[in-house]
Amino acid sequence: MSIGIVGLPNVGKSTLFNALLKKTVADAANYPFCTIEPNVGVIEVPDDRLPILAKIVSTQKIVPAVVEFYDIAGLVKGASTGEGLGNKFLSHIREVAAIAHVVRLFEDGNIIHVQDTVDALRDIQTVETELIFADLATLFKQKEPKGKFSKEEGIRYDAIIKLKNHLNAGSSARTLRLTDDEAIQAKDLQLLTMKPEIFVFNVSEEQLMEKEDTEQRIASIMKYYTTPSPDKSGETPPYKGGEFKQDSSPPYQGGVPAVESDSTNGGRGFIFLNAKLENDVLAFEEADQKEYLNQYNLKETGLNRLIKTAYETLGLISFLTGGELEARAWTIKNGTLAPQAAGTIHTDFEKNFIKADIVQFDDFVALGGWSKAREQGKVQIVGKDYIMKDGDVVEFKIGQ
């Protein structure tokens, strides 16, 4: 699973990416487009359960779940029509599973802003508008089926019409309720605004210290962002890619796209952090890191919160396996059945799945491993219809 880090130039995307990777990979400079090709990093998902599991099963090797992060170059107004190498950058976004949208909230006269002033809501609108325009361009390329066509083709075209009208009203595709069949047909369109999105507000150290005020400020931005409204600046041009014939609504003028809430519901969530501080804290030993974070009343790094939020936003969970060789977290989608979970270890495991022994992590820890868990009747023997849960400790039984 992959997350694309997007946003305007000079908002802290590459600084954040370097902190995630715990080393300098991406260029971070005080000018637009210092990143051209996307940098890719495989990031471990923090999981406090793994060291505990490793100790119980007497292994030194720990293998956490991972998420890929892509540092994508900054978007600018007009990216959907090619401004600032926009078409190339938008194609990079199309390849990821979800978007981490970095928004600048900090003021710093030494770091230029592409629009000269810091205005978080305006900046969100700029990026979201370009993503909507790019999706409209994709939809206008889709042709109406002619003559005899299959049921699936009809459902697909119905979904396209709904999506055109929804995007034309200034709302992102992810907020449109499609039927299950329509959603399946729309998936291959790879719409940018269909992807789950996390807002990452890059704040100053002062804003980090004034946590309640910063939370309120962000909440007010997100509250304003909850319903479509006309563009007050009047600067965003209407989409020029085609004419709507399905309804009489005017072309989208750059209003605020709809958002479900300020949590991960509706495919969106948000966090705030200081990207520079996240980089600085990496220079300290673990014990010193905690002391450093305590100055800002933080229990963990913003990076850990981002990674966990990304994992949740993608609808992912982890099941655990442990033995003498290793303690490992395996990534699966929420709702995965036991045979498919076994298949993440090896494809033959899904094909030859017989059953699985499963114990909840807390019970496994409390009883000190499989032996006592079995004695106490805490081990479930499950079949092919079992839906995996986060934190399941598993032994799969596989046939020949």
Automatic annotation (TrEMBL):
<dbReference type="GO" id="GO:0005524">
    <property type="term" value="F:ATP binding"/>
</dbReference>
<keyword id="KW-0067">ATP-binding</keyword>
<dbReference type="InterPro" id="IPR013029">
    <property type="entry name" value="YchF_C"/>
</dbReference>
<dbReference type="Pfam" id="PF01926">
    <property type="entry name" value="MMR_HSR1"/>
</dbReference>
<dbReference type="GO" id="GO:0016887">
    <property type="term" value="F:ATP hydrolysis activity"/>
</dbReference>
<dbReference type="InterPro" id="IPR004095">
    <property type="entry name" value="TGS"/>
</dbReference>
<dbReference type="InterPro" id="IPR004396">
    <property type="entry name" value="ATPase_YchF/OLA1"/>
</dbReference>
<dbReference type="InterPro" id="IPR041706">
    <property type="entry name" value="YchF_N"/>
</dbReference>
<keyword id="KW-0479">Metal-binding</keyword>
<keyword id="KW-0460">Magnesium</keyword>
<dbReference type="InterPro" id="IPR006073">
    <property type="entry name" value="GTP-bd"/>
</dbReference>
<dbReference type="GO" id="GO:0046872">
    <property type="term" value="F:metal ion binding"/>
</dbReference>
<dbReference type="Pfam" id="PF06071">
    <property type="entry name" value="YchF-GTPase_C"/>
</dbReference>
<dbReference type="InterPro" id="IPR012675">
    <property type="entry name" value="Beta-grasp_dom_sf"/>
</dbReference>
<dbReference type="InterPro" id="IPR027417">
    <property type="entry name" value="P-loop_NTPase"/>
</dbReference>
<dbReference type="GO" id="GO:0005737">
    <property type="term" value="C:cytoplasm"/>
</dbReference>
<protein>
    <submittedName>
        <fullName>Redox-regulated ATPase YchF</fullName>
    </submittedName>
</protein>
<dbReference type="InterPro" id="IPR012676">
    <property type="entry name" value="TGS-like"/>
</dbReference>
<feature type="domain" description="TGS">
    <location>
        <begin position="315"/>
        <end position="398"/>
    </location>
</feature>
<dbReference type="InterPro" id="IPR031167">
    <property type="entry name" value="G_OBG"/>
</dbReference>
<feature type="domain" description="OBG-type G">
    <location>
        <begin position="1"/>
        <end position="293"/>
    </location>
</feature>
<keyword id="KW-0547">Nucleotide-binding</keyword>
<dbReference type="GO" id="GO:0005525">
    <property type="term" value="F:GTP binding"/>
</dbReference>
<dbReference type="InterPro" id="IPR023192">
    <property type="entry name" value="TGS-like_dom_sf"/>
</dbReference>
<feature type="region of interest" description="Disordered">
    <location>
        <begin position="226"/>
        <end position="261"/>
    </location>
</feature>
